[in-house]
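Lab meeting, action items carried over

1. Structure of the two-component assembly. Owner: GW. Status: complete.
Input record:
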Amino acid sequence: MSKPPPTARNEWPLWEVFIRGQHGMSHRHVGSLHAPDAEMAIKNARDVYTRRNEGVSIWVVEATKITASSPSEKGPMYEPALSKVYRHPTFFDIPEDVGAM
Amino acid sequence: MYAQMVKSEIADGGPEMDAFQARIDAGERIEPKDWMPDSYRKTLIRQISQHAHSEIVGQLPEGNWITRAPTLERKAILLAKVQDEAGHGLYLYCAAETLGVSRDELTEMLLDGRMKYSSIFNYPTLTWADIGAVGWLVDGAAIMNQVPLQRTSYGPYARAMVRICKEESFHQRQGYDIMMKMAQGSDAQKRMAQDALNRYWYPSLMMFGPSDTESVHSTQSMKWRIKINSNDELRQKFVNQTVPQAEYLGLSVPDENLRLNEETGHYEFSEPDWDEFFQVLNGNGPCNAERIAARNKAWDDGAWVREGMMEHARKKADNTKLAVE
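Predicted assembly:
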């Protein structure tokens, strides 16, 4: 995710663009762009990111409104998931005789 | 190859640097919020913005022919291609912005000459065949460089490259398609096609930059995986691929030393005139002044639109606030 430019001149704000590629899929981050407001951000996103049928729906979010986790917290943040192998179905041995489960 | 002669900063030492290099060696991608050495950040900003500027300035020689394309279909295709170039510039500026510079800063550095763009766009497009030659040769040379960069170490740059490469192949094919039409056309059209190849051959070879096997900058950039192949390697690959394509068109490559070395499987060819390359890079090419003047004019003429739209957005936001209160 991009961070806002350090110098706040009269520059159009930065927007992050998310696109639903096809029906049934979730929106995915595809990039960013500058626009004066949300409406123009959607229009610009259409021109910049969907020139070849790449999407059926666009979300735009002002980059400054996004809160991101920090890479330096990666350890404490995700370690609990690693130590709890019983959360995965493969942790449990079910006899073959029981059938599909 | 839209970035030429990018100077890399010399890497700082220290344990952090070692850990960083280890991540790159392991094939990991570096993302915007990750720790990175200042030297890596600076070099990347230079390289990505030079690439972005090339995409934007590269619209000018082709834009020159939009109103004079021979058919409505060719005109629509050329418009779509030039629009793609604008898109490529935007993907790349956004990638550069994740490194902590603003797009306006980068634009200003292009406009006042502090930053460069590829030497190739300082050559004029004199005839319609030049549009064919630009797509075939210039975009062809760009693809040689951009395909490996999809695996570059910096995440946002690599992802921008993936998008660009998907679209670039259309550009090269449309160029070759123009060349085929011209080469199969009347004698005058054939002469035009040959003339375009004559004028664009050496400038296309220059796009890869001078030999860099001895360059410290290249060594550092390769270690960081922001450069994947040497300039000579890519140039050779380009010649090997392009010569048979020229033969198919029935056109001759303007190089009397060109010959296939049966042992190596590579073509031997003449080096371009590197004095000319440095002249063009330093601002003395046929169109340098014109290109920068056109960019400055577009930037100045568009100022009222940028400011007006920002003001309109502010006013609309204020009105919404008042209505809520």
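2. GW to write a short summary for the group page. Key points so far: The interface with chain B takes residues 1-3, 5-7, 9-12, 14, 31-34, 36-37, 40, 47-48, 51-52, 68, 70-72 of chain A (CB under 8 Å). The longest helix of chain A spans residues 38-49.
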